[in-house]
# Entry
Amino acid sequence: MIHSLTDKVRFNNGVEIPGLGLGVFQIPDEDTAEVVKNGIINGYRLIDTAQIYGNEVGTGVGIKEGLAATNIKREDLFVTSKVWNNHLTYEETITAFEETLKRLELDYLDLYLIHWPGKAAFKESWQALEELYSAGKIKAIGVSNFEIHHLEELLSFAKVTPVVNQVELHPKLAQQALRDFCEKHDIKVQAWSPLMQGKLLTDPVVKDIAEKHQKTPAQVILRWDIQQDILLVVKSVHEQRMKSNADVFNFELDSADMTRLNQLNEALRVGPNPDEFDF
Ligand code: NDP
# Structure
């Protein structure tokens, strides 16, 4: 279990990722630099963006400004991006990666993910990621929104096992079968939309547990992930919320709290179902 914002978890290839990171989905490019810079100043060491978010330029500027403001080095940060679904041929994936790197103004990525399995085959895209990985341009490669059957297909031809599967995961969508599969194959699970994009914050059970611990509903949910060793990325554009989302290492949910939170699971998604999303 991680005990601070800088605590890391080891992937199957030895690379380490901070357990709790800052996501920048749905932040306009022109606002992203400020958010990323504030995130770094407030101790976040993992920044999660994607080609499709349209804010890799702002993310890159924020990284530069954050490094300058804190005196930490590029190697102390962990930067993730993702290739979108219209880039699933080998060549297009390589090109998409090079463009991402250019927009971010970085010379390597820590983690690069296939964003969605999509309907097209992802074999070529994965082979491109393997190539970029062996060339040292990416420290680790993984997938996002892969169901068990997608992972089985991937593992049937992959030379490099993905380090992570980043999926929607929160108390309303516990993803236990997928988590078990990933654990068996030494693939870490990372939660996206851990707060269900804010929708879980008014849940009466979450609020009740928050009151009991004198914590916020967001802190209770993030703690639920941390106590289960689930990696996560959470987003806020507000500095106060960024700070409080990171202030989750000084209390403990007891087993009764965990049971109540686990009972909220109803396989409910805020995002698309990977098997139904029409790409
Ligand atoms: P989150 O579950 O992180 O929720 C973000 C929402 O909750 C925002 O509206 C934010 O508002 C609000 N919020 C955050 N903290 C608090 C707080 N303490 N109190 C009240 N409201 C709060 O949703 P995301 O969808 O952003 O998921 C997190 C990250 O996961 C993304 O940013 C992205 O990096 C990644 N992701 C990946 C996907 C994939 O397909 N791989 C899909 C979706 C997300 P405000 O900003 O105004 O504070």
User: Anything to note?
Assistant: The chain has a mean pLDDT of 96. The beta strands are 8-10, 16-18, 20-23, 46-48, 78-83, 109-114, 138-144, 164-168, 188-192, 231-234.
